[in-house]
Amino acid sequence: MLANNSYRIIQPSGILTAPSTQDLIQEATQAVEQKVKCLLIDMQNVNFIDSAGLGALVSIHTKMRLSGGRLCLCSLNDQAKGLFDISDMDRIFEVYENQSYFLGAIGQSKQAIIVS
To answer: Which of 10, 45, 90, 107 would bridge with 1, disulfide CB 3.0–4.6 Å?
Structure first.
């Protein structure tokens, strides 16, 4: 079980392409610097991910792993699920149906979330 201050949820929106991932990468870098143990990226409001967006997620995953943490994703749309399936990224990332499933898996209540 993770303590309340050991995880964070980031909720990007729109499209994840090279120009639009800078904020996401910056927020993830801050999480690493703050020694967050688990970072959840909630993709509920993401409409499209291209290869650069996928590359940004892989980079964040690597940073989290190197810092002793983990990256989880949730609420992938059909396009993202297809991209993950084709690229075999579904084997690398921990993917949850939505935030509730993630919170259930780590044993936390929604009220205790730190949302950035």
So the answer is: 107
